[in-house]
Design goal:
mainly alpha, two-stranded antiparallel ribbon, 2 strands, single chain, about 45% helix, 5 helices, Arc Repressor Mutant, subunit A
Amino acid sequence: MRNPSSTTTTAATTTTKTKVKNNSNNNIGSNNSPCCNKVGLKRGPWTPEEDEVLANYIKKEGEGRWRTLPKRAGLLRCGKSCRLRWMNYLRPSVKRGHIAPDEEDLILRLHRLLGNRYLYHLLFRFRI
């Protein structure tokens, strides 16, 4: 049986194939929904009051369920924004300040061993 997505002309003996666009409507069952309805949400820099609300809520309820957290905490931010703010700035285990000499030595040794690409992933994953 002939492939319906290809056409062959016998006179010129050339074969052409048609491409199908990968449209999001064609992905049945995929989970590509947006993280939030962006209408009415605050954008831009976080205020100290928002930081405090987020930190207090996470201390009380714990991490997780990021999509529903803003509404439950009373924030006008999307869940992704709350998660990134917590993970990168507000979490108590985030190290701040200067790099200690032993940490710098470790980074240099790992860079010689692994190179830039894998060192970045290692440092980011394990928060060295």
